[in-house]
Amino acid sequence: MIILWTLIAFISGSLMFSYWLGLLAKRNLKEQGDGNPGAMNLWKAAGYRYGLAGIALDFLKGYLPILIMIRAGDISGYAVVLPSAAALLGHSFSPFLGWRGGKAIAVSFGVWSALTSFAASLAYAILLVLLLFLGRWIRKGKPATPVSDGMQVVAGMVLLAVYLQMAGYPAQILMFWLANVLVLLYTHSRELAHVRG
Ligand SMILES: O=P(O)(O)OC[C@H](O)CO
């Protein structure tokens, strides 16, 4: 069952809804903005209606398979880690985009929402807002950059461990957290590479 659910979650994650919505709006996201096939780039390229649809669909493709898997009772304990990580990997290494993909932010929210009944997603969202204000304060009002955005996303996920520990989540959740940190580090490696230079 674990292999089946891992496959289902990977295929679900690999559905590039924001990219396809972009094509529907006659915009190739790979040639627009930062080139990311995600909802924010879609929003900027095609407007808020498309952007909101992209956010919802990219969220649901992580949320639904993991929720159904848990509800079905087929998978529990450490076995949840593999399908959960597979949903993220599907988005970032999509066979529909030549094994390339997006940053895996929206799909991460979806998976965390299914695993923790939205609690960790809310905590991550709060952390991102706090880091947004902290970043503005540090930059003294200067606009955000892809580098500062990337740092915010990764730092927020790293700090989520504090919440997960305090809330007493089991080891398998912390294991998925580690997988999520690694995926976000990889998908933001271009931005983070500029932090030192
Ligand atoms: O992580 P993605 O690929 O879903 O897209 C990133 C979002 O658009 C937020 O920047």
UniProtKB/TrEMBL annotation:
State the UniProt keywords alphabetically. Acyltransferase, Cell membrane, Lipid biosynthesis, Lipid metabolism, Membrane, Phospholipid biosynthesis, Phospholipid metabolism, Transferase, Transmembrane, Transmembrane helix
**Pfam families recorded for this chain?**
G3P_acyltransf
Q: Which GO terms describe its biological process?
A: phospholipid biosynthetic process
Gene Ontology molecular-function annotations: acyl-phosphate glycerol-3-phosphate acyltransferase activity
In the UniProt record, the signal sequence range is none
Keyword Phosphoprotein among UniProt keywords: no
A GO cellular component annotated for this chain's UniProt record is: plasma membrane
TM segment ranges: 49-70, 77-97, 109-134
Q: Which InterPro entries match?
A: G3P_acylTferase_PlsY
Q: What is this protein called?
A: Glycerol-3-phosphate acyltransferase
State the species of origin.
Paenibacillus nanensis
